[in-house]
Specification:
The chain is mostly beta strands and 63 residues long. 0% of the residues lie in helices and 78% in strands. The chain has one domain. The radius of gyration is 16 Å and the shape is elongated.
Length: 63
């Protein structure tokens, strides 16, 4: 069964609006040849505009 770790960080303006958010999800398989996958998503908002970006990386760990 894979293991997961999720991290979410938010930037909140003084009036309580979320103006930036980064979310990172890492999954790892439990066997001896582990595969680690990390996906990071970032969203930034300003007024009526917003921008987002997603990146993903995969690594195989051989013991």
């Amino acid at each position: 069964m894979p293991r997961y770790q999720v991290t979410v960080k938010r930037i909140v303006s003084s009036d309580g609006q979320i103006i930036g958010e980064a979310k990172s999800v890492v999954s790892a398989s439990p066997n001896s040849e582990s595969e680690v996958i990390q996906t990071t998503a970032v969203k930034v908002s300003a007024g009526s505009s917003s921008s987002s970006s997603v990146t993903s990386a995969k690594a195989r760990l051989v013991r």
